[in-house]
Design goal:
This protein is mainly α. Helix content is 86%, strand content 0%. The protein is built from 2 helices and no strands. Its main location: membrane. It is found in: Cell membrane.
Length: 73
């Protein structure tokens, strides 16, 4: 039998809990969850930046930018 039965999974879970303890597993879960949340946040920010770069620029926008750049210099 190549598949895992429910008993294999239960025995594996018991061994993992005995080896690491519930507090370490809880901390590991928090760390992994935080890493996934940060990864998703960075992807959303990057998509927002790329969307802003892909927006077409109008002549009004370009002329305002040119005026602002000459005023700053």
């Amino acid at each position: 039998m190549a598949g895992l039965s429910i008993w294999h999974v239960v025995i594996f879970a018991i061994v993992v809990i005995l080896l690491f303890g519930t507090s370490k597993l809880k901390n590991l879960g928090k760390d992994v969850g935080g890493a996934v949340k940060d990864f998703k946040k960075s992807i959303r920010e990057e998509d927002a930046e790329n969307a802003a770069l892909k927006e077409p620029r109008t002549l009004e926008h370009q002329s305002n930018t040119d005026v602002n750049s000459t005023v700053k210099n």
